[in-house]
Amino acid sequence: MPRRRVPVCGYTFDGVECPEVGSHFCVPRADHVQAFFEEILVHTKGQYVRRKFILAPWQRDEIIRPLFGRVDWSDELECYRRRYEVAWIEIARKAIAVDTAVLTANRGWTTIGEIESGDQVFNLDGQPETVEFVSDVYTEMVYRVTSRFGRSLEAGVDHDWLVHDRTRPRGALRQADGTRSKPDYIKSVVTTGDMLSRDLKDGRGTYVNALPATGSLKIDSGTLPVDPYCLGAWLGDGTSKSGAITAHEDDQPFMRAQFEGAGYETRETSISQVFYVQKLMTQLRSLGVLHNKHVPEQYLLASEADRLDLLRGLMDTDGWATERGSTLSYGFCAKNVQLADSVEFLARSVGYNAWRSVKHVGGYGDYQEVHFTAQTGAPNPHRMPRKALKARGATSRNQLDSVVSIEPVGVKQTKCIGIQSGFFLAGKDLMPTGQCGKTELLAGIMLYLLIADGEHSAEIYGVARDITQAKLAFDVAAQMVIMSPVLSRRLQVSDYKKRIFDVRTNSAYQVIAADAKSALGSNPSGVGADEILAWQSGDMWDSLRTGMGSGARLQPLMVASTTAGNDSEGFAGLMHRQMEGIAENPDHKDNRHIFTYIRNTPKDADPWVEENWWHANPALGDFLSLERMRTAASEARANPIAEMAFRQFRLNQWQSTTVRWMNMFSWDKKSNRSTLYENNAKLLDSFNGCECYFGLDIAAKQDLCSICYLFPCADPTYGVDVAWRHWICEAGLERLDRQNQGRFTHEFAKNGWLTVTPGDVLDFEELYADIKADSNRFCILGGDVDKHMSEPIIQRIRLETGIGVEDIYAYDNQFSTMSDGMHRIFDMVTDGIFRHHGNPLARFCFDACEAKYKLSDPDLIMPDKPNRMRASKRIDAVPAAIMAVNAWWSRDGQIDSIYNERDVLVI
Q: Looking at the domain assignment, is residue 286 inside a domain?
């Protein structure tokens, strides 16, 4: 029967009809989804709130248009439909150092590392705002961003900043009095890397990026024990050991009136310029400031009015105001560094830009000077008439705080948080910075699938790692609906049910958590899977994909969003490897339905070869400094932690661990110059008659029980060969299979790399039988056994193998005992003389192993044991190998090596 002729596409949008036939890129379809974003949707946060959602070039041309524009003809359905059913998008994360100080409205000062969902940080207007999202802790290269006014913050290369672009003036504005203001500048969101990629100054010497002005902190606080103005005046001109205040004779009536107005009695003293405040000394003692002048924490975090009064008391005594044309500035001078710190914070906390300088006065030493400027209409920081009058009528606006330097700090732990408005104040300097945030792109795609994709009774699901994260993703979409004039008239938002409903098509968008037990028989037409990086398993993914395959949906779409992660053996890591393969051959018949947006340096590419850096850095040598890249690479080569950060954040490669130990490139390319075996039995048989040492890591239920046999060369410079046995009980295998897509059964157990014993607990009789067989195969010279439960096991091994009492040691897993072995293994792998013969289960363990460093001595390291109940990874081959190396290195005697009879085989 002749095949039916495929008709013309004919899709029409905005008067344009698609004339293409067969598989093609349909321009009107791509135009339709782009128009939905840019004409219907609006931004929901930050400075762009309620503005049209104009797609960035990479969003438009590399994701949205190709994803929705590619179509195929379906003979079965006799229509054109979208080519892609799955989209995999990897985006960068944004984070700042975990030790960054952050002021919260609910519990005062804390750090980014301690911030939790529900805490309240301060947005750029100074208003407290609830933290809705808190990320995991990452390890990455961070940079110190420093501003003109001395503020600084340590952030990752992809962290967001809201800046005024001083290369793009918006023009002067005419004021009500007929004068023209200074020109404003276009605001934009840039990353640390964006600022690094271009000069910080333009050709005229003007700093390009300027941080926005911030509002006064709105803090609720109780009654203070000492009137804040009076405390400020005493801190400025009071006697540190009493309640005496020094004031010029012209100012003394005013100052005494301020104290008396606050309820104190004052009296003259024998010194004309000094007056005394009754009962003040007792209150000062209770505050802890007598003989120790400083601003107590409760005053620094008092209400806006109280902080301003405190600042006025300080400024009326040791401060001044200066007018130079239309520029109004203030200053404060003190020898007390702590007091100057407090004045600088107080000025910033009420909305001024403040900065510090040091003035040397001959014979008196160094004095701290705090300078600050104010916006038009800002409160006067003086009460004293002769000083306050200078500030009247000033029209100066707050100067922009330019970014003046960005310097690498090194590898640190980082974390990001999310608030609705998008930007918050961080650091003791109250520096305006960006959040991790939720991408609006994914929310926009889900809303398009809900109402514009031609699907009746559509079921759209937003899925994240847990219900808290899933609700946050929903809130982004809900805000888009509420703020869009078009969508708000058509869609109903139920915040209680976390559901958006379209009455016209009987369609709904709702959220579920990836840790839910199932999708409850859903038949989704669209899924937005967010934070894939943090999903513990792929159960929800499989459930939703199965629901999509029912055939009831014309063109279902599942969109996954993630970043380059640090667990290549977890669900997201395994998915990433699959998507990398698809990206290499997208037109294969099995891959055509999957869209990928990934820019990673290939895993097998040498990370130290500069030609390979362009894979993930297309602007390298142009906007991105090649010299900085070389410096980072040089640091990374000598430091496993820095190497992990270099690979993950410079080369966008997935990493196995947060603090990476083993160089897996060396493991795969250098240390495997040896014979490969198709199964473990053949590998073990190849060393018949050879002398060896062993290390035994013991486990009974959840972990692997592992023994490593180490076969030394007669000449240590030739290195060692290693072989492993691994055992696990059936119950432990079932859990690991669930977490690793069945890999332990189908890959490791199938070829004998893993032995499975029946039941819920390991059958140690099978372990003893295998070790006894190995003792007949090899000449075992001795070994180390994990001290945990070791005594009865050591006795049984001695009985079964005949190894002497003095040749098997109980090994205590500590920094002091494991560090040397780890360093020796790392060096041998790097030198290509640790021959593991391609054991896949050992590779799984080494790839998953984290190195834990001793804080008092970074040279001391040991493996960091993963949480066996939660983590999908296992590392038991590593401690077994460390113990085997320790047994070999700590024993004396001649070695009868296999290489006395044959050469080292290198392939």
A: yes
